């Protein structure tokens, strides 16, 4: 049995959990590839990716190419003499990279492929009200998340689970699945299933300011799913208008209460402890919110120092 020499590629926290599992299981990680450092926030402070922070702490060989086709990077990658590449939440790879290792390049994706190919599978599964999701390993090919499936495992999405909670569960499932996939590769017992495209396939589009905005005209369950599907990051948001004041607020936590009312949609009703917003089939009760320039607060805490008028509304 040929010993694996692994190059790992990934960027966010989700990928760190998998890289850690490789080291805990004594796999030989000969190199780590992650995103280039970039300035973030108001001070434009240089931010390291979560994977870079972890790789440095473990003194792993680190590469941060800006161009994956750059000849110097390709030469450096070849010099690592990897025979397998593991990719988790990275970017699209050129053929020269994914075809390089003898045992191929496989990806761990946080959905049940072919559904939710793309950048934000965990978020969209919740936003769309799915009852189940899972993790999939597959060999990379020349398109995004379309390669031959190696392993797939599903799990139930709990009715009140948010994206952060599901992220952590899928990361733990993914750790076990990546190790199982590597064992199949080591033992030369991999079998694959070709993905079949159908018109019903759902896509995990990139999240942006537009698709994270709450549309109060939608049903209560759709709004509730959007809020939990974007919590804690990047967070659902909306405008709140009260007289001359208008704020763009982030809503982290809410519940939906069914109610057959005749109130106008978007109307804000608040007491000293409770804030609810009218939707077509009931109320969205806001439990955690953030106003511009302020920290995230529990609603009761916010209402301690803030009152809304009769005319306050969510837009």
Q: Could you give the count of β-strands?
A: 18
CATH third-tier fold name of the largest domain: Rossmann fold
User: What is the radius of gyration computed over CA atoms, rounded to a whole number of angstroms?
Assistant: 23 Å
Q: Can you summarize the main beta sheet?
A: 7 strands, mixed
| Structural class computed from helices and strand pairing | alpha/beta
Low-confidence stretches: none
The fraction of residues assigned to DSSP E strands is 25-35%
Tally of contiguous helical segments: 8
C-alpha geometry: elongated
SSE arrangement, N to C: EHEEEHEHEHEEHEEHEHEEEEEEHE
| Strand arrangement, major sheet | 5-2-1-6-7-9-10
Count of distinct structural domains: 2
CATH class of the largest domain: Alpha Beta
Estimated helix fraction: 25-40%
Mean pLDDT: 95
**CA-to-CA gap between the ends?**
62 Å
**Please, what is the CATH homologous superfamily of the largest domain?**
Formyl transferase, N-terminal domain
CATH architecture of the largest domain: 3-Layer(aba) Sandwich
Fold and architecture overview:
With 315 residues, the chain is of the alpha/beta class. The chain contains eight helices and 18 strands.
């Amino acid at each position: 049995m040929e010993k694996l020499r692994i190059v790992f590629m990934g960027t966010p926290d989700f990928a760190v959990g998998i890289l850690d599992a490789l080291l805990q299981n004594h796999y030989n990680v000969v190199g780590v590839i992650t995103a280039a450092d970039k300035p973030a926030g108001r001070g434009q402070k240089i931010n390291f990716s979560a994977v870079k922070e972890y790789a440095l702490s473990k003194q792993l060989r680190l590469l941060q190419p800006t161009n994956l086709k750059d000849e110097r990077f390709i030469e450096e990658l070849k010099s690592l003499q990897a025979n397998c590449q593991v990719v988790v939440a990275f970017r699209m790879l050129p053929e020269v990279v994914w075809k390089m290792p003898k045992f191929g390049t496989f990806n761990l994706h946080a959905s049940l492929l072919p559904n939710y190919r793309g950048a934000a599978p965990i978020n969209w599964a919740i936003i769309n009200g799915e009852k189940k999701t899972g993790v999939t390993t597959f060999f990379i090919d020349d398109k995004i998340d379309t390669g031959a499936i190696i392993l797939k495992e599903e799990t139930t999405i709990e009715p009140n689970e948010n994206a952060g909670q599901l992220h952590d569960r899928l990361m733990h499932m993914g750790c076990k699945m990546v190790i199982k996939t590597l064992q199949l590769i080591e033992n030369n017992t991999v079998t694959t299933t070709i993905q079949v495209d159908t018109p019903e396939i759902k896509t995990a589009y990139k999240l942006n300011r537009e698709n994270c905005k709450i549309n109060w005209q939608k049903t209560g369950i759709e709004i509730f799913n959007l809020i939990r599907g974007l919590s804690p990051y990047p967070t659902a948001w909306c405008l709140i208008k009260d007289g001359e004041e208008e704020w763009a607020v982030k809503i982290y936590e809410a519940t939906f209460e069914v109610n057959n009312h005749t109130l106008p949609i978007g109307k804000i009703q608040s007491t000293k402890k409770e804030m609810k917003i009218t939707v077509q089939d009931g109320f969205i009760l806001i439990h955690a919110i953030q106003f511009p320039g302020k920290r995230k607060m529990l609603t009761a805490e916010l209402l301690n120092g803030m009152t809304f008028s009769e005319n306050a509304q969510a837009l």
